[in-house]
Structure formats: structure tokens, C-alpha cells
């Protein structure tokens, strides 16, 4: 029941299962795999697709001939395994040129290079089949607000997005942009730090219909926020173009843990929401195996991400048909009052009716709301005792 299938649309990035386990306090602990080897690993564990930053696939200093050879070998591996490339992105954070931002840099030469690098990366992504392009502005921020005017920096960011949507339209590409937020790390403070900030920013763009969001579990949990609420907001605005699944202990550095390995109840409600609303995009696992893992354990990590999602999907179905849970939900959400026709769209007569009605506050405050019982039934279900 918990074996992944192509229709589940489980994807991983080259940088996820290919992570070599280095951190600020220690070097790599695993051999670096080639993109072709990573495709083979993902095919072995049952993934649907593979995503990449431009330089995950083609080194930043590769010649055109080297690029063509690498891409040809990668395409051959995709053909042999059946994996697809739903999403691509650009590395605008590793090279020292971007140490003070890419699109928000105060140096127009840096901004110009960032645009050139992104256009080339978009061409590469589209060549390999990507229909979603993610932007994570890991260096778009500051350590000190003395260094930049945030209004000017965000105007530069806006100009870059407008330029690139214009490029995509001019090329006739079937491609949508998904913007990814994060509160901090590697910068002390990153601009547009939450999904809500990104959604507001998108509304200021010239081609806002082409641009949505790519929320990530860890990035919202780093700030102590409720990830489900941000996903629901994006979905309600028809802006949930992509999603990054992992796990995170609130208040810590960006951990990118195996999906569902820390916050199982939050992961349950997220999976249930995605399945209930019929989200049809990729379920992308932007996570890393523990530094202690060898590649056999990396495979266990990847299988675990997908298995946990499928278990929680099944639990969501059980929640939706559980008689006791549904009876409580019916009781809690019962609306037999006379006001359902008055609390939607404004009408003068409706407003007047509300102003004249004598509400019984004490009665309203005494309504039964058995959330403790409902939550415990949810816990029982997740723990397998229902």
C-alpha cells in the first residue's frame, strides 16, 4: 500500500539525495554522485521525477561542449529510467558574486549577471521538460539594515521578476514561476521572509498570473509559523504552484529533515489538506539524509519520505470516514442559525437586520466545542489504535 507510483508525483532534487553531508563544522562524509548516478538512485527507490539547480547539473565553469555532453548523458538517464524533470531553479547563492544578493544587489552588474545566469538556466530547465521554475532568494537580504534601503532592494527584485516573466513570454515557454520564502540563513534577514509576504509581492508584478509560490515546511517552521495555514492561503488564491516537503524543529537552523520525522501531526494535516483539495502538482522532498548516513541509508531516507506521505494519505482517508470524528465535526460545524443568508455578501437590508437583532451573548458563549475530544481521536488514529 505504501509503495510510490508515478501518479503520486514524488520528486527529489539532485541536491537532496546527492547531498554529501558536509556542514559548517565538518567536510563531506559521502562520495559525490554524478547526476546520472542520482537519477539511477531515485529510479531505484521509486521516485517520479528529479529537479535541479543549474549548477547541480552543469558546473558553473563548464564549456558549451561540456554542457552539451552532460545534458546528453542526463537525458539518456531520464529516458532509461522514465524519470521526468517537473521543476528547475537557479543557484544564485553559492558564488561570491552573490554574497550581497543577486536580484537585490546594489550593483547593477551583479543584477545583470544574475539575470543572464537565470535566463540560461531557464533555457536548460525548459529543454529538459520543466514547467515550473522556482526562485529561492537565499542571498536576497542583509546582515545590517545600514547597508540597503529595503524599498529600493524590493524594487530591484520586482524588476528582475518582471524582466524574467517577459523573457519567458517572449520565448514562448510553457513555464510558471514559484517564489520560495525563508526568514533567515544564510543571510541574517532575508527579504520576503514568509509565504504571505511572497503572495503580497506577487500582486505587484506585471505578469502576476504567471507567478505563484513554493512554500517549504522547514522555512515556515523556522519562524514558528503554521505551515498548513500558509499553504491554505496560497491554495485559496490559486497560487500554490509547487511545494517543498521536509521537516523541522521550530527555532532551529534550517534542518531539512526527512518528511514527517519531527512534526507528525502537522505533517498529517498538511497531507490531508493537499489530498482533500486535489492538489495535482509535484510532492517535492527538499530534504537531506542525516550526516551519519551512507548511500544505503540515503535510499532509506528517500523511501521514508514517500512512505510517510502515503501512510498519512491513508490516515487522512480514515479521518474523513471515521464515524466518531465526523459526528464531532458535524456537531462543531453545525449552522442551524437564522443568519447564514446575512453574513455573506453585504446588503443594506441585511445590515439593518443585524443592527436590530438582540443577540444572546451568553447562549453563544455556552456552545459546546469538544476540540479536546476531537484532537485525541486524531491522535488515536495517527497512533493506530482506532
Give a brief description.
With 386 residues, the chain is an alpha/beta fold. Helix content is 47%, strand content 9%.
- Number of distinct beta strands: 10
Question: What is the CATH class designation of the largest domain?
Answer: Alpha Beta
Give me the Rg, rounded. 23 Å
Distance between the termini: 19 Å
Structural class: alpha/beta
H/E element order: EHHEHHEHEEHEEHEHHEHEHHHHH
Label the overall shape: globular
CATH topology of the largest domain: TIM Barrel
What is the helical fraction, as a range of percent? 40-55%
**Which percent range describes the beta-strand content?**
5-15%
User: How would you name the CATH homologous superfamily of the largest domain?
Assistant: Divalent-metal-dependent TIM barrel enzymes
Count of helix runs: 15
- Major pleated sheet: 8 strands, parallel
Mean pLDDT, to the nearest integer, reads 97
Please characterize this protein's 3D structure.
- Strand 9, helix 10 and strand 10 form a beta-alpha-beta unit.
- Helix 2 runs parallel beside helix 4, helix 2 packs across helix 11 and helix 5 runs parallel beside helix 6.
- The protein is α/β, with parallel strands linked by helices and about 375 residues long.
- An eight-stranded parallel beta sheet has the order 8-6-4-3-2-1-10-9. Strands 5-7 form a two-stranded antiparallel ribbon.
- The chain has 15 helices and ten strands.
Amino acid at each position: 500500500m505504501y509503495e510510490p507510483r508515478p501518479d503520486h508525483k514524488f520528486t527529489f532534487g539532485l541536491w537532496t539525495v546527492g547531498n554529501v553531508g558536509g556542514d559548517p563544522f565538518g567536510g563531506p562524509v559521502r562520495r559525490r554522485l554524478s547526476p546520472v548516478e542520482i537519477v539511477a538512485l531515485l529510479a531505484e527507490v521509486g521516485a517520479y521525477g528529479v529537479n535541479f539547480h543549474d549548477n547541480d547539473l552543469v558546473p558553473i565553469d563548464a564549456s558549451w561542449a561540456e554542457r552539451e555532453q552532460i545534458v546528453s548523458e542526463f537525458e539518456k538517464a531520464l529516458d532509461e529510467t522514465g524519470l521526468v524533470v517537473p521543476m528547475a531553479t537557479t543557484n544564485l547563492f553559492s558564488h561570491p558574486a552573490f554574497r550581497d544578493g543577486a536580484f537585490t544587489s546594489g550593483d547593477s552588474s551583479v543584477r545583470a549577471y544574475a539575470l543572464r545566469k537565470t535566463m540560461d538556466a531557464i533555457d536548460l530547465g525548459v529543454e529538459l521538460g520543466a514547467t515550473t521554475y522556482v526562485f529561492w532568494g537565499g542571498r536576497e537580504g542583509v546582515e545590517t539594515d545600514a547597508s540597503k534601503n529595503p524599498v529600493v532592494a524590493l524594487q530591484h527584485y520586482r524588476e528582475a521578476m518582471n524582466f524574467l516573466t517577459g523573457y519567458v513570454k517572449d520565448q514562448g515557454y510553457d513555464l510558471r514561476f514559484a517564489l520560495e520564502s525563508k526568514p533567515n540563513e544564510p543571510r541574517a534577514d532575508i527579504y520576503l521572509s514568509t509565504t504571505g509576504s511572497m503572495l503580497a509581492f506577487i500582486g505587484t508584478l506585471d505578469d502576476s498570473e504567471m507567478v505563484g509560490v513554493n512554500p517549504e515546511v522547514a522555512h515556515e517552521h523556522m519562524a514558528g509559523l503554521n505551515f498548513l495555514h500558509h499553504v491554505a492561503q496560497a491554495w485559496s488564491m490559486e497560487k500554490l504552484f509547487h511545494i517543498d516537503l521536509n521537516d523541522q524543529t521550530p527555532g532551529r537552523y534550517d534542518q531539512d529533515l526527512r518528511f514527517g520525522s519531527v512534526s507528525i501531526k502537522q505533517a498529517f494535516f498538511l497531507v490531508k489538506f493537499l489530498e482533500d483539495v486535489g492538489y495535482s502538482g509535484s510532492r517535492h522532498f527538499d530534504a537531506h539524509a542525516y550526516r551519519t548516513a551512507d548511500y544505503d541509508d540515503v535510499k532509506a531516507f528517500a523511501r521514508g519520505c514517500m512512505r510517510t506521505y502515503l501512510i498519512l494519505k491513508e490516515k487522512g482517508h480514515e479521518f474523513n470516514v471515521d464515524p466518531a470524528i465526523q459526528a464531532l465535526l458535524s456537531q462543531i460545524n453545525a449552522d442551524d442559525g437564522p443568519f447564514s443568508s446575512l453574513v455573506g455578501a453585504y446588503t443594506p437590508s441585511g445590515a439593518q437586520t443585524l443592527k436590530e437583532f438582540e443577540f444572546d451573548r451568553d447562549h453563544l458563549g455556552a456552545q459546546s466545542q469538544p476540540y479536546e475530544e476531537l484532537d485525541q481521536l486524531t491522535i488515536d488514529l495517527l497512533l493506530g489504535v482506532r
